[in-house]
Amino acid sequence: MIYLIALLVLCATAFVVMLVLQLMPSDSAVIRRLGDMQRVEGYQTVIVRRRRQERAERLQAILEGLGSRGVGGEAVSGLRLRLLNAGFVDLNAPYIFQGARIVLALGLGFLTVTLAPILGAPFAGVVLMGVWGLLMGWVIPGFYIGRRVANRKYQIQRSLPDALDLLVVCVEAGLALNQALLRVSEEIANISPVLGEQLAMVNLEIRAGSAREQALQNLATRTGVEDIQSFVTMLIQTDRFGTSIADALRVHSEDLRTKRRQLAEEASAKTAIKMLFPLVFCIFPAMFVVILGAAIIQIVQALSAFGS
Fold first, then answer.
1. Would residue 122 count as lying in a domain?
2. Distance between CA 237 and CA 42 in Å, rounded?
3. Angle at the Cα of 270 from the Cα atoms of 266 and 276, rounded to 5 degrees
């Protein structure tokens, strides 16, 4: 009798467990539903991204069409070199840049001419504000490119000695120069993405069939940095004359570190002269007001009482 009761209890428990499991949603259904949701979201993301890309391409085509009518001849080559130094490698970048200049100048000019009468400016003020808007719209893109070029050159100059040290280690470890450049580009990208990108582009050009000398010359042209130009010249001469690449890289790295230290000392020496104008025009007048203000007030009160 006891065994029969235990068997019935066991069967009832198993039946309850199976019923609960049947009523609960299975993991496969949940996973399947989540996968469907992810696919739908991924599809929507792809659609949104494609629409943004289409709008960007239409805008780029409009700017390129405007810029192609506003620039030509030797100005294109000079502008293309400047944009290369800023990191824009597209062949149509000069035309897009010129089109952006035209659109921004016309837009700011129209905006200032529209807002000037609302602010109550006279006709001469409206004309001056319109001219100011045109000039600002024309100058702002060039200022942005100049700042971008300066920042990229600063990043490259700052991280180049470290890249040369890594290159020395790779060459002494037995890697060829091409493989060493590729390895250094991967490692230096954590410190300077700009320099890592440029070194990786050198390796891609060599893989595409360009000569190493031409790829290195293109590196110097793209960056526009004097230290990179000297580095490229040193590599080309070392390759031609068959001297030790590791020794040449080590000497060049020491020279770059010395140059960087001298630039830091020069900047620190200029600090005193740069601080002179804020001290004279901002800090000293405030100190004089705080220190001599109360005394001057007392002297004025004493003189006024003495006169009365």
1. no
2. 52
3. 170
Q: How many domains are there within the chain?
A: 1
Residues 6+ apart with CB under 8 A from 277: none
Residue 156 and residue 194 in contact, taking contact as beta carbons nearer than 8 Å = yes
In a domain, 255, yes or no: yes
Selection from 69, 73, 75 nearest residue 103 by Cα: 69
| CA separation for the pair 106, 151 (Å, rounded) | 28
- The per-residue pLDDT for range 193-242, each reduced to its tens digit, is 888 888 888 888 888 888 888 888 888 888 888 888 888 888 888 878 87
What are the tens digits of pLDDT across the range 257-288? 888 888 888 888 888 787 888 887 888 888 87
For residue 192, the Cα-to-chain-centroid distance in whole angstroms is: 10
Between 90 and 26, residue with greater pLDDT: 90
Number of helical H runs and strand E runs in the chain: 12, 0
**pTM of the predicted model as reported, rounded to 2 decimal places:** 0.67
The one-character DSSP state at 26 is P
Q: How many residues does the chain have?
A: 308
57: which 2 tokens?
Answer: 């391409």
In angstroms, how far is CA 25 from the centroid of its own chain? 50
Residue 267 falls within a domain, yes or no?
no
